[in-house]
Amino acid sequence: MPLKQMKLHRLKMRLNNPFTTSFGSVQEKEFFISEVIDGDGNRGFGESVAFASPWYTEETVETSLHVIENFLIKILQENDIQYPDDVTQLFSSVKRNNMAKATLEGAIWDLYAKRENIPLSKAIGGMKQEIDVGISIGIQPTIKDLLKTIEHYVQEGYKRMKIKIKPGHDVNVLREVRKHFPNTPIMADANSAYTLEDAEHLKQLDNLGLMMIEQPLKDDEILDHAKLQEELNTPICLDESIHSLTDAKMAIQLGACKIINIKIGRVGGITEAKRIHDYCRKHDIPVWCGGMLEAGVGRAHNIALTTLSQFVMPGDTAGSSHYWEQDIIQPEVSVKNGVIKVPDQPGIGYEVDEEALKKFTVDLKTYDL
Ligand SMILES: O=C(O)CCC(=O)c1ccccc1C(=O)O
Ligand SMILES: [Mg+2]
């Protein structure tokens, strides 16, 4: 692929509502839109997902920029890319920093699909024309607020409700939720807030009919997750623990989880996400696509990934308007009855709205490739 230039648009956008997890709240979001341009004037887009502080993984907006500018761009300048999969191999000389890598790799995948004149979903081997999505609900000020919020999203048709939990705000809350919504598919996400010593307490979740509990323990506690899964009937789903196919293999073979949440940024790009997907498919492990409060470009990548066959559970890719007053793509991502229609235009299948992009841009850097 004749890559000519990479642009890094730094955007600042404000979420409609603060999003609260066991680790704190996010409302202002700074991130990068990567734009790779070829010799024929095609443009591919990617989006970075690291937050301002390293609460989710060790990466931040600033570490992403540091790694992209000083290492990853050089690799693209010094090597020819035949196929997007090459990028993962080339970037492997840089350890971890997966979100930085995925920022550039995603743009190259979009460019590749546009050059081939096919949707990104087809370029990666996806077959679905529609995908099912659920919604992730942050910690609310009161149980009453939470119940009202859930009611709203049940009415909108989202396919499952993900409720954030933390110590002191878990079994009690979920019991109440289950009482009001006896038949709604519900899951919980702890974002690493517990230790194995909480096993007895977490066992109380077993009679609430949850689809799964996501990431109860620390990201590197794969062994402890295996011990916890032995105690729990509720399936464990891993999020923060899975940075690579190697992590996924270890987690599955040790019995640390029964379900995996795949996030493109966390695993270093679409190619690695596909490899994890393929392994899970072979081993009958259901997967679903997680979210990082993305703007439209990242959302479009998640939609394409979710068209792969082993994404058998609703993901976190809610509609644009749930997050943003104005998104940066046209049309915005819309969800009807918990379903997104997969776009059939080339590449990510949504147009980047140049005016919106400009409006939210606080810095722009250009690198010749
Ligand atoms: O709606 C979304 O994009 C996902 C929301 C979410 O749960 C989340 C948001 C930011 C960081 C981590 C997580 C998570 O899945 O743990
Ligand atoms: Mg999670």
Keywords, separated by commas or semicolons:
14 helices, binds 2-succinylbenzoate, 4-stranded antiparallel beta sheet, 2 domains, 7-stranded parallel beta sheet, TIM Barrel, EC 4.2.1.113, binds magnesium ion, 369 residues, alpha/beta, Enolase-like, domain 1, 37% helix
Helices, by number, come to: 14
Oligomer: single chain
Tell how many strands the DSSP assignment holds: 15
Helix content: 25-40%
For the residues shown, what is the average pLDDT?
Answer: 97
The percentage of residues in β strands lies in 15-25%
Function: Converts 2-succinyl-6-hydroxy-2,4-cyclohexadiene-1-carboxylate (SHCHC) to 2-succinylbenzoate (OSB).
Keywords: Lyase, Magnesium, Menaquinone biosynthesis, Metal-binding
Family: Belongs to the mandelate racemase/muconate lactonizing enzyme family. MenC type 2 subfamily.
Protein name: o-succinylbenzoate synthase
